[in-house]
Here is the input.
Amino acid sequence: MPKQEFKFINNKIIQGKEDKYLNVHVSAADVLKSWKDSVFSFEWLKADGSVKPIEALNESEKTKRECVEHDLSDGKALETPILGIGLMENIEIGAGRAIFLTLCDKGAQTIPVHIPKSNESDFAKFITTQD
Here is the structure.
């Protein structure tokens, strides 16, 4: 798959709190592997950990995916997803789940995200350089 260029803007959730977050690129595959342990992953992931096709999503998630697909086709900037660490010490996608998972399904190797500065060391193994 040829490399696609995606444009991002800061997520509105961090507005006024930018000093509490880091902007990093993470390995999409490594995040998916960790997020598979989330109680919410069943909505988007198949048993093998890959992203479900759009037609397999529930109506609410399908609508979110369609919005991301529309924004991508229009060349709009996407809000940067926000990741955190869950109770089971796995990655949680706090905001921008449809964006993150749609990009994974489109073959993105790395994805820019916001992470809490307080969790920087927890993310060390996921952080990568931009592809």
Summary: The longest helix spans residues 59-73. The helical segments are 28-35, 59-73, 97-105. The chain is about 25% helix and 20% strand.
